[in-house]
Amino acid sequence: MANTTEAAAAPFGRDGGVLTVGGVPVDRLAARVGTTPFFAYDRSLVTTRVERVRAALPDGVELSYAVKANPMPALLHHLSGLVDGLDVASGGELRQALDTTVPPERISFAGPGKSAAELTRAVAAGVTVELESTTELARVREAGERLGLTPRVALRVNPDFAVRGSGMRLGGGPQQFGIDAERVPAVLAEVGAAGLDFQGFHVFAGSQNLRAESLCEAQRATVDLVLQLAEAAPGPVRSVNLGGGFGIPYTARDTALDLDEVGENLAKLLAVSLRPALPEARVVIELGRYLVGEAGVYLTRVVDRKVSRGTTFLVVDGGLHHQLAASGNFGQAIRRNYPLSLATAPGGPEETVTVVGCLCTPLDLLGDRVSLPGAAIGDLIAIFQAGAYGLTASPTAFLGHPAPPEVLV
User: Which stretches make up the Orn/DAP/Arg decarboxylase 2 N-terminal domain (predicted)?
Assistant: First the structure.
């Protein structure tokens, strides 16, 4: 855990032993925010990560941000000036995306269960609707007829393969996501008959993958599938969203993704397969967690220290209602600690402690038997890798505690 924590904390830096975010010591930042707990995101780390991804990806590959990873408005506006497009998964995210500088034609709307009202808003805005069923196709066509507009659409494809090593599987086998690959040609014929503005394909088979070879294998299979399906397209393919799924390390057993290997594979696919066969297509990589996850930290204050039958507990004013993933209740089969550290200057020798939140449930466990410098009541604890799937992926109403502020520094 020590090495993982050091790697997660290093980009933020310290000033006199106090963790900094955006160059500001967190004790001073807490005074500025006015309360704890809170989320803090370092804008320079987000910018640096986007630049790193751009450098690794071949020329001609566009970068889209998956808003679901973190829709905090200031962060979203910052990213809108760095990426080529945005992917949204609800009417609420659509509204936020349309408030940025990203043009509507560079916004895509994915996700199952889009309501007729959401689809009408998407058609009116001119964004690309990622069709996930024939029901959505009918709803989009009807919305276009009512509005006197030609809807922009792409097909989200559920491939006939899965991605090895993914934290969550979003393709292969039966899925609520996308249209089964074998049914796509028939749906493409319906799209053509309806006179919709066909853009292309979106294939996203898995998320949170740290294995470069697995991602490369999935991208090769995705390109083969898209080229096959393109033969049935009702017009030229103008967009190919290869998904993303790039993972970040959360625990001691995780190894950071080899981004350069992924970029080299994409360069080959672009030169050998995609450009010759689909010369008009924009090729898109869609990332969320990978762009913002490591740029965020959740800061919570120690409100009590107690010893129970030989175990020292640090009780903090935050918890799983704000940071569900760090508690192990957001997709972990076996609970493992997120990297966390004492954010204020250490006041005592290293000790083994268990960090728990303020909720009246044993599920509210943030750090199980972790080694920390001696912490006292009033000290700040930092939980790293908190820039993605934090606040908006957590049960904030649980037990009636107030929602934490978010700041971009």
Answer: 46-292
Identify the pLDDT of residue 2.
47
From 335, 333, 330, 318, select the one nearest 383 (Cα to Cα): 318
Summarize pLDDT for 8-66 with one digit per residue, the tens: 999 999 999 999 999 999 999 999 999 999 999 999 999 999 999 999 999 999 999 99
Element (H, E) at 269: helix 259-269
Task: Tell me: do 99 and 226 sit in the same domain.
Answer: yes
Kindly write down the DSSP assignment for every residue of 200-233, as one continuous string. Answer: EEEE--EESB--HHHHHHHHHHHHHHHHHHHTT-
Range of the domain at 14: 2-42+294-408
The rounded percent of the chain whose pLDDT value lies above 90 is: 88
What pTM, to 2 d.p., does this model score? 0.94
Mark whether 262 and 401 lie in a shared domain: no
The predicted-structure confidence for 111-123, as pLDDT tens digits, reads as follows: 999 999 999 999 9
320 and 177 in one domain?
no
Q: In whole angstroms, give the CA distance from residue 149 to residue 197.
A: 10
**CB contact set of 193 (below 8 Å; sequence gap of 6+):** none
Indicate which residues carry an active-site annotation. Answer: 360
Chain segment 361-390, per-residue pLDDT in tens: 999 999 999 999 999 999 999 999 999 999
Q: Mark whether 133 and 212 lie in a shared domain.
A: yes
**In the predicted structure, residue 347 carries a pLDDT above the cut 70:** yes
Domain with residue 137: its CATH number is 3.20.20.10
Between CA 128 and CA 301 the distance in angstroms is: 44
The per-residue DSSP string of 337-394 comes to: PPPEEE-SPP-S-EEEEEEE-SSSSTT-EEEEEEEEE---TT-EEEE-S-SSSSGGGS
Residue among 129, 124, 114 nearest 145 (CA): 124
Whether 13 and 161 map to the same domain: the answer is no
Task: Report DSSP letters for 82-127, one per residue.
Answer: TSSEEEE-SHHHHHHHHTSSS-GGGEEE--S---HHHHHHHHHHTP
Which residue, 287, 305, 338, sits at the end of a domain? 287
